[in-house]
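Ligand-bound model needed. fe (ii) ion.
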Amino acid sequence: MLLRKEMVVPDVHRPFHSRKGWRVMVNVAEGWKPDGCTITGDFVDCLAVSFHERNLARRHDLAWEIEDANAGLDELDAALGSKCEKRFVMGNHEYRLERYIAQKAAELFPFVKLEQLLRLKERGWKVTPYRQYVQVGKLKVSHEYGNAGPTAHVKAMADVLGNAVIGHTHHLGVDYTGNAVGESHVGASFGWLGDVEQVDYMHRAKANRNWHLGFGIARLEPDGTAHIQAIPIIKGRCVVEGRLYSAALKSVRRAA
Ligand SMILES: [Fe+2]
Ligand SMILES: [Fe+2]
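Prediction:
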Protein backbone atom coordinates (compact mmCIF):
# COMPACT_ATOMS: atom_id res chain seq x y z
CA MET A 1 0.00 0.00 0.00
CA LEU A 2 1.32 3.44 -0.91
CA LEU A 3 1.66 5.48 2.26
CA ARG A 4 2.01 9.20 1.64
CA LYS A 5 4.81 10.92 3.60
CA GLU A 6 3.95 14.11 5.45
CA MET A 7 6.23 16.37 7.47
CA VAL A 8 5.12 18.97 10.02
CA VAL A 9 7.41 21.90 10.84
CA PRO A 10 6.47 23.56 14.14
CA ASP A 11 7.30 27.03 15.53
CA VAL A 12 10.72 28.12 14.22
CA HIS A 13 10.60 31.74 15.44
CA ARG A 14 13.17 32.91 12.91
CA PRO A 15 15.53 34.72 13.26
CA PHE A 16 15.66 33.41 16.84
CA HIS A 17 15.81 29.79 15.74
CA SER A 18 17.99 26.94 16.90
CA ARG A 19 20.57 26.71 14.12
CA LYS A 20 21.31 23.11 14.92
CA GLY A 21 17.64 22.12 15.20
CA TRP A 22 16.82 23.86 11.94
CA ARG A 23 19.70 22.13 10.14
CA VAL A 24 18.63 18.69 11.38
CA MET A 25 15.05 19.28 10.18
CA VAL A 26 16.19 20.53 6.75
CA ASN A 27 18.48 17.52 6.40
CA VAL A 28 15.51 15.24 7.09
CA ALA A 29 13.42 17.14 4.52
CA GLU A 30 16.16 16.57 1.98
CA GLY A 31 16.89 12.96 2.91
CA TRP A 32 13.37 11.66 3.63
CA LYS A 33 11.68 13.71 0.83
CA PRO A 34 8.11 14.04 2.12
CA ASP A 35 5.20 14.24 -0.35
CA GLY A 36 3.71 17.05 1.75
CA CYS A 37 5.00 19.55 4.29
CA THR A 38 3.03 21.79 6.63
CA ILE A 39 4.50 24.74 8.53
CA THR A 40 2.28 25.24 11.57
CA GLY A 41 2.96 28.95 12.19
CA ASP A 42 5.25 31.20 14.25
CA PHE A 43 7.79 30.63 11.49
CA VAL A 44 8.78 34.30 11.81
CA ASP A 45 8.93 35.86 15.28
CA CYS A 46 7.94 39.38 14.13
CA LEU A 47 9.45 40.82 17.30
CA ALA A 48 9.85 44.21 15.62
CA VAL A 49 6.06 44.62 15.31
CA SER A 50 5.09 43.12 18.66
CA PHE A 51 2.98 45.16 21.07
CA HIS A 52 4.53 43.39 24.06
CA GLU A 53 6.78 45.31 26.42
CA ARG A 54 10.04 46.08 24.61
CA ASN A 55 13.33 44.64 25.72
CA LEU A 56 15.68 47.12 24.12
CA ALA A 57 18.60 44.74 24.46
CA ARG A 58 17.06 42.72 21.63
CA ARG A 59 17.31 43.59 17.97
CA HIS A 60 14.10 45.11 16.62
CA ASP A 61 14.47 45.03 12.87
CA LEU A 62 11.66 43.73 10.68
CA ALA A 63 13.76 43.81 7.49
CA TRP A 64 16.29 41.51 9.14
CA GLU A 65 13.54 39.14 10.32
CA ILE A 66 11.96 38.94 6.87
CA GLU A 67 15.30 38.46 5.16
CA ASP A 68 16.20 35.66 7.54
CA ALA A 69 12.81 33.96 7.12
CA ASN A 70 13.21 34.09 3.33
CA ALA A 71 16.68 32.57 3.63
CA GLY A 72 15.15 29.76 5.69
CA LEU A 73 12.40 29.20 3.13
CA ASP A 74 15.00 29.14 0.33
CA GLU A 75 16.76 26.29 2.15
CA LEU A 76 13.57 24.39 2.94
CA ASP A 77 12.19 24.78 -0.61
CA ALA A 78 15.42 23.42 -2.05
CA ALA A 79 15.40 20.49 0.38
CA LEU A 80 11.75 19.57 -0.25
CA GLY A 81 12.00 19.74 -4.04
CA SER A 82 9.40 20.81 -6.58
CA LYS A 83 6.99 17.87 -6.15
CA CYS A 84 6.21 18.49 -2.47
CA GLU A 85 2.76 19.84 -1.61
CA LYS A 86 3.47 22.76 0.75
CA ARG A 87 1.13 24.39 3.27
CA PHE A 88 1.87 27.41 5.46
CA VAL A 89 -0.46 27.92 8.44
CA MET A 90 -0.14 31.37 10.01
CA GLY A 91 0.48 31.69 13.76
CA ASN A 92 -0.04 34.46 16.28
CA HIS A 93 3.50 35.74 15.62
CA GLU A 94 2.80 36.22 11.89
CA TYR A 95 -0.48 37.84 12.92
CA ARG A 96 1.56 40.47 14.81
CA LEU A 97 2.29 42.21 11.48
CA GLU A 98 -1.37 42.31 10.44
CA ARG A 99 -2.37 43.70 13.84
CA TYR A 100 0.41 46.28 13.79
CA ILE A 101 -0.59 47.56 10.35
CA ALA A 102 -4.27 47.59 11.31
CA GLN A 103 -3.54 49.72 14.35
CA LYS A 104 -0.72 51.94 13.13
CA ALA A 105 -1.34 52.39 9.42
CA ALA A 106 -4.68 50.93 8.40
CA GLU A 107 -4.47 52.57 4.95
CA LEU A 108 -1.51 50.31 4.15
CA PHE A 109 -3.34 47.12 5.15
CA PRO A 110 -3.96 45.86 1.58
CA PHE A 111 -0.33 46.44 0.61
CA VAL A 112 1.67 44.94 3.47
CA LYS A 113 1.07 41.21 3.82
CA LEU A 114 3.44 38.72 5.35
CA GLU A 115 2.63 36.14 2.70
CA GLN A 116 3.85 38.60 0.08
CA LEU A 117 6.98 39.53 2.03
CA LEU A 118 7.79 35.80 2.22
CA ARG A 119 6.79 35.26 -1.45
CA LEU A 120 4.74 32.24 -0.38
CA LYS A 121 2.61 32.03 -3.53
CA GLU A 122 5.64 32.25 -5.78
CA ARG A 123 7.34 29.56 -3.69
CA GLY A 124 4.30 27.28 -3.96
CA TRP A 125 3.12 27.41 -0.33
CA LYS A 126 -0.68 27.36 0.12
CA VAL A 127 -1.57 29.74 2.95
CA THR A 128 -4.04 29.11 5.79
CA PRO A 129 -4.85 32.24 7.85
CA TYR A 130 -4.29 32.43 11.60
CA ARG A 131 -7.11 30.80 13.63
CA GLN A 132 -8.09 28.50 10.77
CA TYR A 133 -7.03 24.96 10.01
CA VAL A 134 -5.89 23.03 6.97
CA GLN A 135 -6.94 19.45 6.36
CA VAL A 136 -4.06 16.99 5.83
CA GLY A 137 -5.58 13.58 5.27
CA LYS A 138 -7.76 13.10 8.35
CA LEU A 139 -5.71 15.58 10.41
CA LYS A 140 -6.88 19.11 11.12
CA VAL A 141 -3.72 21.20 11.38
CA SER A 142 -3.83 24.64 12.96
CA HIS A 143 -1.46 26.86 14.90
CA GLU A 144 -3.79 26.61 17.87
CA TYR A 145 -7.42 26.04 18.79
CA GLY A 146 -7.55 28.62 21.59
CA ASN A 147 -5.78 26.57 24.24
CA ALA A 148 -2.36 27.03 25.82
CA GLY A 149 0.03 24.87 27.79
CA PRO A 150 1.32 21.33 27.48
CA THR A 151 -2.14 19.73 27.27
CA ALA A 152 -3.44 21.99 24.49
CA HIS A 153 -3.10 19.21 21.89
CA VAL A 154 -5.35 16.98 24.04
CA LYS A 155 -7.97 19.72 24.31
CA ALA A 156 -7.65 20.33 20.56
CA MET A 157 -8.92 16.80 19.87
CA ALA A 158 -12.12 17.65 21.73
CA ASP A 159 -12.36 21.01 19.94
CA VAL A 160 -12.27 19.48 16.47
CA LEU A 161 -14.07 16.25 17.43
CA GLY A 162 -11.33 14.40 15.63
CA ASN A 163 -7.61 14.40 14.88
CA ALA A 164 -5.77 17.61 15.65
CA VAL A 165 -2.21 18.82 15.13
CA ILE A 166 -1.16 22.12 16.64
CA GLY A 167 1.88 24.34 17.06
CA HIS A 168 2.05 27.23 19.51
CA THR A 169 2.75 25.43 22.79
CA HIS A 170 6.29 24.26 21.84
CA HIS A 171 5.43 21.08 23.70
CA LEU A 172 6.36 17.77 22.06
CA GLY A 173 3.71 15.13 22.56
CA VAL A 174 1.20 12.79 20.96
CA ASP A 175 -1.96 11.64 22.70
CA TYR A 176 -4.75 9.26 21.74
CA THR A 177 -8.30 9.09 22.93
CA GLY A 178 -11.31 6.99 22.08
CA ASN A 179 -15.00 7.70 22.23
CA ALA A 180 -18.13 5.80 23.18
CA VAL A 181 -18.64 4.41 19.67
CA GLY A 182 -15.14 2.96 19.51
CA GLU A 183 -13.43 5.56 17.32
CA SER A 184 -9.86 6.58 18.05
CA HIS A 185 -8.47 10.09 17.65
CA VAL A 186 -5.02 11.60 17.90
CA GLY A 187 -3.85 14.99 19.09
CA ALA A 188 -0.28 16.13 18.56
CA SER A 189 2.01 19.02 19.20
CA PHE A 190 5.42 18.72 17.58
CA GLY A 191 7.71 20.91 19.71
CA TRP A 192 9.56 23.85 18.24
CA LEU A 193 12.79 24.78 16.45
CA GLY A 194 13.53 28.03 18.28
CA ASP A 195 16.48 28.91 20.48
CA VAL A 196 15.58 29.21 24.13
CA GLU A 197 18.59 31.49 24.69
CA GLN A 198 17.16 34.08 22.31
CA VAL A 199 13.57 34.48 23.49
CA ASP A 200 12.46 36.23 26.63
CA TYR A 201 8.68 35.85 26.76
CA MET A 202 8.94 32.78 28.95
CA HIS A 203 11.15 32.17 31.98
CA ARG A 204 14.13 30.20 30.71
CA ALA A 205 13.71 27.52 33.35
CA LYS A 206 10.10 26.97 32.33
CA ALA A 207 10.94 27.01 28.63
CA ASN A 208 13.69 24.46 29.20
CA ARG A 209 11.23 22.28 31.07
CA ASN A 210 8.22 22.47 28.76
CA TRP A 211 9.58 23.17 25.29
CA HIS A 212 11.37 20.61 23.19
CA LEU A 213 13.22 20.75 19.89
CA GLY A 214 11.58 18.58 17.30
CA PHE A 215 9.12 18.25 14.45
CA GLY A 216 6.57 15.73 13.21
CA ILE A 217 6.08 13.15 10.52
CA ALA A 218 3.08 11.16 9.36
CA ARG A 219 2.34 8.33 6.99
CA LEU A 220 -1.09 8.59 5.40
CA GLU A 221 -3.15 5.68 4.17
CA PRO A 222 -5.05 6.27 0.87
CA ASP A 223 -8.23 7.15 2.84
CA GLY A 224 -6.30 9.81 4.80
CA THR A 225 -5.89 7.81 8.00
CA ALA A 226 -2.76 9.25 9.58
CA HIS A 227 -0.08 7.38 11.48
CA ILE A 228 1.90 10.14 13.12
CA GLN A 229 5.13 10.37 15.06
CA ALA A 230 6.75 13.13 17.06
CA ILE A 231 10.45 13.36 16.20
CA PRO A 232 12.47 14.76 19.11
CA ILE A 233 15.87 16.26 18.34
CA ILE A 234 18.19 15.05 21.06
CA LYS A 235 21.80 16.20 21.32
CA GLY A 236 21.54 17.55 17.77
CA ARG A 237 20.34 14.28 16.29
CA CYS A 238 17.08 12.56 15.41
CA VAL A 239 15.93 9.28 13.90
CA VAL A 240 13.34 9.11 11.12
CA GLU A 241 12.18 5.70 9.96
CA GLY A 242 15.39 4.02 11.04
CA ARG A 243 17.82 6.63 9.73
CA LEU A 244 19.92 8.83 11.96
CA TYR A 245 20.15 12.48 10.97
CA SER A 246 22.37 15.16 12.46
CA ALA A 247 23.07 18.81 11.77
CA ALA A 248 26.29 17.90 10.01
CA LEU A 249 25.23 14.92 7.96
CA LYS A 250 22.45 14.94 5.39
CA SER A 251 21.51 11.36 5.26
CA VAL A 252 23.36 9.23 6.95
CA ARG A 253 23.33 5.72 8.13
CA ARG A 254 20.68 3.30 9.13
CA ALA A 255 20.37 3.14 12.90
CA ALA A 256 21.57 -0.25 14.17
FE1 LIG B 1 5.50 29.81 19.09
FE1 LIG C 1 2.13 30.77 18.78
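Helices lie at 19-32, 62-80, 92-104, 114-117, 120-123, 152-160, 204-210.
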